Amino acid sequence: MTRYLIRGAKPLRGEVEISGAKNAAVAIIPAALLVRGTCRIENLPQISDVFMLLKILQLMGAEVKTVDSHTVDIDCSGVTRTVADFDLMQRIRASYYLIGALLGRFGTAGVAMPGGCNFGGTRPIDQHIKGFRAMGAVVETSGGLVEARAKGGKLHGSAIFLDMASVGATINLMLAAVLAEGRTVIENAAREPHIVDLANFLNSMGADIRGAGTNVIKIRGVKELRGGFYSIIPDQIEAGTYLAAVAGTGGEVLVRNVIPKHLDCITGKLQEMGVDVVDGEDSVLVRRKEPLRCTNVKTMYYPGFPTDMQPQIAAVLATAQGTSIITEGVWATRYKYVSELEKMGARITVDGRIAIVEGVPKLTGARLEACDLRAGAAMVIAGLCAEGVTEIGHVGYIERGYENIIGKLRNIGADIMTVNYPGEQEDEILDAM
Ligand code: EPU
Q: Which residue has the least CA distance to atom 36 on ligand 1?
C-alpha cells in the first residue's frame, strides 16, 4: 500500500498551477455520450475518477484518443451498449450521470447504484429519479441497479422542482433534457460553477440551455448535438485546498490558473482568519504572517462556503487562536476525519451537523488513514502544519481528485513523499465519492 509521509511545520512558498475541475470533468465526460461526432476536451485533470469514467465509456463502445496529457478526443457515435460496466460503475459516484446521458440518447439505461455512504450517512438519488419520471421515464431500482426506460422510447420536457438544490440531480436532468422533446424547466437548480461549465459545453455542441448559474434552468430539446472543442474550468476546490494549506503553514504562494470569482466564498473566510489574499486576473496570491484567528463557517450551496472545503478549513482552524464553530449545511454529517485529526492533538467536538474547534498551539505528526477525498486533503494540510512526521494511508481517495498533489506540494517547499509498503494490499474498491 502507498502512503504519504509528511515532515511538517514548514512554510510554503512559490507558485502552484491548478488543474481542470474534477466535478466538471466527471459531468462533461458522460455528456459526450449525447454527441454524434468527436468532442475534444481540454484541461482534463489527470485523476483516477477521470481515468475510470473514460474506461467506462470505452467499454460501452466509445472511441477515446489521448491527444496530450490533459486533452482527449471522445467519439461516442459508435456506442450501442446502454448498460454500463457494473464493477467500474460502483467505484465512482459520478457514474450516475450515465443514467441521464443514456436515457437522453437511447431512451434506456442500466447503471449500478452509486456506492458509498462515505461521509457516514446516506446519499440518496430520489431527486434524480423524480425528474426522470416527470420526463416520462419508468425507473426501477433493485439489486444495486438503476434501470430506466423512456415510455414511447423518448423523453419529453417537463417542469421539475427540486426539493433541494442538488448538484447531481441538476446535472443528470440537464443531460436527460437536452435531446428530449420540448422544454424542461428545472427550478431550485444548483448554481455551482461546474453546472455552468456543463451547460457551456453542451451549448457549444448545439444544445439550448439557458439560466445555468441561476436557480431556474430552461432547456429546449434539440434534435442532435455535434462535435467540437471544449476546455474545462479550473478546479475551485483544488485551488481552495492549496489556499488553505498556505493559511495553515504560513508562507506565500501564487495559486495560478484559477477563476478568482469562484474562490470568493473561500478567500473571504481566510481573510477573516488573518490571511492576506490578493486577486489577480487568473491567479490568487495568498500570504500568512500573523497568527491565525478563529472564525465560524457554515457550508452551503454555491455561492456559499463549499462543503467540499469543510474538512480542509477545519484542519486550518485546529491551530487558530480561539474557538471556531463549523456548521455542515449540505450533508447530514461529514466529520469522519475528526477522529484522525484528534490523533494529532486537535480538539474538535462534533454534535450532528456542528463541530466545535478549539484552537491548540500546535499539532503533532501521527499515523492517519484517509476516509474520503476531502478528508484526505484535510489530513495532508494537518500534516503540513504539524510538528514531526505524519503518515497517511488510503491515499487512493486523495488521488481521485487531486492531480499530482505530491509534485505540486514539493514544488512549493513541502517535505512530502510517497512510501510503499509491499506487504500491504492496495485498496480494491474505495467508497464512491
Ligand atoms: N440529496 C437528496 N436527494 C437527492 C440528491 C441529493 O436528498 O436525490 C441531498 C444529499 O443527501 C445532500 C444534498 O442533497 O444532503 C446535496 O447533494 P448533491 O446532490 O448536491 O451532491 P452530489 O451531486 O451527490 C456533488 C459533488 C460532491 C459535493 C456535492 C455538494 C460530484 C461528483 N460530487 O455531489 O463533491 O459535496 O455535490 O456540493 O460532483 C467532492 O468533490 O469531494 C464531493 C463529494
A: 308
CA-based R_g, the chain, Å: 21
Q: Cell triple for residue 274? A: 488573518
Q: Report CA(153)–ligand 1 centroid distance (Å).
A: 29
C-alpha grid cell for residue 107? 431512451
Helix (H) or strand (E) segment spanning residue 251 = strand 251-256
- The atom number, within ligand 1, closest to the CA of 194 reads 39
Output the DSSP codes for 121-134.
S----HHHHHHHHH
Same structural domain, 282 and 192? no
- In whole angstroms, what is the distance from residue 390 CA to residue 392 CA? 7
Question: From the CA of 168, how far away is ligand 1's center (Å)?
Answer: 6
CA of 166 to the centre of ligand 1 (A): 6
Q: Could you tell which of 28, 95, 123, 139 is best to mutate to test the pocket of ligand 1, judged by most ligand atoms within 8 Å of the CB?
A: 123
- Residues 199 and 58 both lie in one domain: yes
Shared-domain flag, residues 226 and 333: no
Are 382 and 342 a contacting pair, CB within 8 Å? no
Average pLDDT, the chain: 94
Expressed in angstroms and rounded, the spacing between residue 288 Cα and the centre of ligand 1 is: 32
Query: What pLDDT band is residue 87 in, cutting at 50, 70 and 90?
Result: confident
Is 310 close to ligand 1, i.e. is its CB under 6 Å away? no
Please report how the helices 236-249 and 260-272 are oriented relative to each other, as an axis angle in degrees rounded to 10.
30
**314-364 pLDDT per residue, tens:** 999 999 999 999 999 999 989 999 999 999 999 999 999 999 999 999 999
- Other CB atoms within a 10 A radius of the CB of residue 200 amount to 20
CA pair distance 415, 389, nearest whole angstrom: 10
Same domain for 252 and 394: yes
For 297, the domain range is: 2-19+234-432
Put simply, whether the predicted model's pTM sits higher than 0.70 gets the answer: yes
CB-based burial label for 164 (10 Å; 0-12, 13-18, 19+): exposed
Ligand 1: does its nearest atom lie under 6 Å from the Cβ of 187? no
Any bridge partners for residue 217, and if so which?
Answer: 186
